[in-house]
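#struct-help
A.M.: can someone run this one for me? Single chain, 368 residues.
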Amino acid sequence: MIYLDNAATTLIKPASVQRAVLEALGSMASPGRGGHPPAMKAAETVFNCRLAAAELFRVPEPEQVVFTLNATHALNIAIHSLAKKGTRVLISGFEHNSVTRPLNALGADVTVFGQELFDREAVLEDFKKKLPGAQLAVCTHVSNVFGFVLPVYEIAALCRQRGVPLIVDASQSAGVLELDMRRLGAAFIAMPGHKALFGPQGTGILLCGQKGLPLLQGGSGSESILQQMPDYLPDRLEAGTHNVCGIAGLLAGLEYVREKGTEEILRHERRLLAQAREELKDSGLELFTGPEGSQCGVLSLRSPRLDCETAAALLAEQGICVRAGLHCAPIAHRSAETLKTGTIRLSFSPFVAERQLSAACAALRKLA
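D.P.: on it. Structure tokens below:
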């Protein structure tokens, strides 16, 4: 199998992740639900995972690291904390449905900025133009469709100047690009655990610059006498039993990222991106690529002769795993004028070898 669908889920993970999950299954109970050894071991693991995430993403206090089910869950907490009916919200032209659907459900007044693919300066200029009067901004760090790296630090600086809270969707950047909570000064940063942080599915993180409003109400293991959620983080936003086994695996994934280094992970993914561009040039396929530094981890393409879903199915028959279609981000395809066709998406990780990518490119050339 050649796995090139890491923008959805990193299937190939460090061996330490599986070991951590299996150990947790047999030795850990629920944190905050007892003083016995299995509960205390779980509590220690959960806290160590908070601490590792806080260190990696430069979060002032580990209590500001809230565990969620995935990035969608994290984004819903952030959006419901800051938006309501009529709130004027700026979103980039490359957002995922995890942003657009909650805003639509709330009845927010949404304005789209920056629909110029791989043009960071144009995105920033459009943001400046539309920022006056905004009450909230939401921006993905990296497009899940095209790998376009948006100017999120510059956008964050403009938000701070205007006093506009910012939510960052770091689903494709966490574990690959530098992500500095202190520098960004964002209200919230959301990320999945199961992509470039190499945790199991069912894990996610919300970095909180604000307390936020609980999306769920229930047991917290603290302040049990209260009939409201506790007023402090992380308990305020973590109702119910933690996914302790998943968090144990996520801790192992975070440790892998820290040991390998995001700089090396980024270099590897960009080497693969350059290799794919070279091996697929003159193939008849349309490649969506940008200037150096504007893209990472993801390459979208399409064929003028074969629809994307059919091409992906034919590749799957050869053991090559890619994703095709709209990738839960129709607004991004509208920005790139690919809404009618969708694209075939190749997405990389440290566990994709150059020879595997060459085999996939050869299969794509043959299909084209």
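A.M.: thanks! Residues 37-56 form the longest helix (20 residues).
D.P.: also worth noting: The radius of gyration is 21 Å.
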